Write a sequence for this structure.
């Protein structure tokens, strides 16, 4: 499952440039960009992601999974659906980027309640800032944040920052693993075209 997910991320979500032309949310420029949305919103990938992450948390007595909208939403929803199908329901929730100014003023959307054990999820981690914002909002809402999972870790210091807030962090795919798969794919492409 993981190998197929990596293949899909390379196909749908990964771009590489010879020079640093991609501006990241952190403001830094990079020579590669990972926009996970085309993957995380793809039905096959949603099934893969949901199964992979559910397998990692199914025995941890987790009540809910979520993160900062919009990146975390399809991932959390995928896990929620798979968890229900496998008989261990885990609710999904969404953390607002900004607090809404009407209706019931709150940062967390979903059927979650104080004291519930939660996993924070993110699609791509660079500095960890978005993930830390989600951790803080979830804790402020009374959730017990016990773990953080990143779909892709760019390995640019985000993990270390997150570990200052939560001691249980895991990435499904690292930049190193993604680049190894990319280089293997490029090598195969050159070999078959010769």
């Amino acid at each position: 499952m993981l190998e197929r997910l990596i293949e899909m991320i390379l196909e749908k979500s990964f771009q590489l440039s010879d020079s640093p032309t991609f501006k990241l949310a952190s403001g830094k420029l990079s020579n590669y960009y990972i926009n996970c949305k085309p993957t995380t919103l793809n039905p096959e990938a949603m099934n893969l992601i949901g199964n992979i992450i559910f397998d990692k948390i199914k025995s941890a007595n987790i009540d809910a999974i979520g993160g900062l909208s919009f990146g975390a939403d399809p991932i959390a929803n995928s896990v929620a659906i798979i968890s229900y199908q496998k008989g261990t329901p885990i609710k999904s929730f969404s953390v607002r980027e900004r607090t809404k100014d009407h209706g019931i003023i709150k940062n967390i959307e979903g059927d979650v309640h104080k004291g519930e054990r939660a996993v924070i999820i993110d699609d791509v981690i660079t500095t960890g800032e978005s993930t830390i914002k989600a951790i803080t909002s979830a804790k402020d809402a009374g959730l017990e944040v016990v773990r953080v999972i990143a779909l892709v870790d760019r390995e640019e210091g985000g993990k270390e920052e997150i570990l200052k807030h939560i001691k249980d962090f895991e990435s499904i795919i690292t930049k190193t693993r993604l680049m190894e798969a990319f280089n293997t794919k490029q090598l195969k492409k050159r070999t078959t075209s010769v």
